[in-house]
Amino acid sequence: MPEKRKHEEIIELDIVVATRDNTAKLGYFVDDTVVNPGLGIPFYKTVLEGANYEHADWKDQACVRTSQIHWRDDHSVSWLERHMEMTQGFIVIGKNPGLFVLGEPTHDREDLDEKNRALPDPKRTKAYIIPAGMGLILKKGTWHDFPVSCGPPVSAFILNTEEVVEALASMPQAGPMNHGDCFKLRLSDHWDFKMKFPDPRPFVQKHGLVPGPVAMPLMGKEGYGAGMKREEVKAGWAGGQKVYVIPVVNVEVFVPGCGGPAIQPHLQSVPELANRGWRDYGNRRGLQRLASMFKELKIPATAVINSEAAKLDYVAKVLKESGWECGAHGLNNSSGAAKMSRSEEEAYFKQSLDDLQQSLGTRPKTWLTPGFSVTERTPEIAAQSGIEAFLDFVDDDVPYYITHEEGKRTLCLPYCMETNDISLCLTKHFDGRQYSQAIEDHVRQLAKEDGEKVVCLGMHTFIAGTPARALALTEVLGRLQKVPGVCFATAAQAAAAPCCSSS
């Protein structure tokens, strides 16, 4: 069994589609495959019957009930139970699959001592998706929780004994049990970590296990990540300024063969020369051009950097000499966190921040996820990783906090899509003058409005850093410096503004 873990650590269970093979240690799989045909009733001419489940045992007579289980937002596993005198069966009926948290039996494990044979083993516990029309008859001692909806309601037959049903019905509220052949544990009584399973909705959608689209509010109730709550920043946060303008220079590399933004998308040759070379030009020349422009204008900026880009000597040299705040932008721009487990995403954050600290000498406090490729855990992991300015959200003109239910907090500085050079130059095909004019109009309008605003100007070295765009951009930024109430800043400076930095 694992050792005690630090408070608030979360173990996230693997989620898999249940099959006959991967549930063999847990029970007897029920599907449309006839295994060991053996009954041979002679007058069944179109039926091939399987043999009895000879090890299934309901002591005397099975109690068969139906249940309809609806969605719950909480993905934590609070209870696990086992039965030692009978096998329990679950048959999923209707059209929708169910999620079953199941742990291998421990009562006969020779590698465990007596105490740990009375506990489930988190390392051998998973979240199994049982498709509609299939089921599982649990072996004696298999740890399990009650089935969970994968989005739509799930209906199931539950094969039990009256003894277990009566024991459960005798409990006025959920609690530990050791009677009526029901041994139920509250996990928090035994461990100081939390066990959760991933949101099953994208999984069942991806694997075609639901008959239609599933509503998937994957970013939590408020849209800012699982367990994250928005909190407004107090009025006066900008210290008398009207608009904080934060130039955000994206310094990126792309995995060869994986593509990326393109100036001539019709060119799909391999090896890729034109579009890859155009992107590489940004790091060789565009980065230097933008650094010179901001230094000449005496305008601060934040660079969000792929940690693999910072390992290039000519990139690291410019960044170290730029005077910019150096923020994090993942490992590279061809991979994000969207398909990662929690532990993989935590390691991804750590590696990105560690590598940037090693390459540039400072540990970033600002984060932008490559390609907005996030999970519902990304904001929480960013906060716990020490990120103080989080740029992934794009839904406002004002900064705001997002706070996790366990107290971790970070400041969101919305990354404006309307002023982003990919939006304007690659999607809308603006030339350098039109691109720069759109930025000027956006900032001037914000400066006319009531209240304090913030705008992140997303720039890429291979777009904003090209000569014609840099020339027009220099002129516009120079004019904006003279607009009353407009203050250029880094993301870190905005996070340190009077009301943003207060607790």
TrEMBL record:
InterPro entries tied to this protein: Glyco_hydro/deAcase_b/a-brl (IPR011330), NODB_dom (IPR002509), RmlC_Cupin_sf (IPR011051), Ureidogly_lyase (IPR007247), Ureidoglycolate_lyase_dom_sf (IPR024060)
UniProtKB keywords: Lyase, Purine metabolism
SUPFAM superfamilies registered for this protein in UniProt: Glycoside hydrolase/deacetylase (SSF88713), RmlC-like cupins (SSF51182)
Catalytic activity: (S)-ureidoglycolate = urea + glyoxylate
Pfam family, one: Ureidogly_lyase
Entry annotated with the keyword Lyase: yes
Domain named NodB homology: residues: 280-389
Subunit-structure text: Homodimer.
UniProt name for this protein: NodB homology domain-containing protein
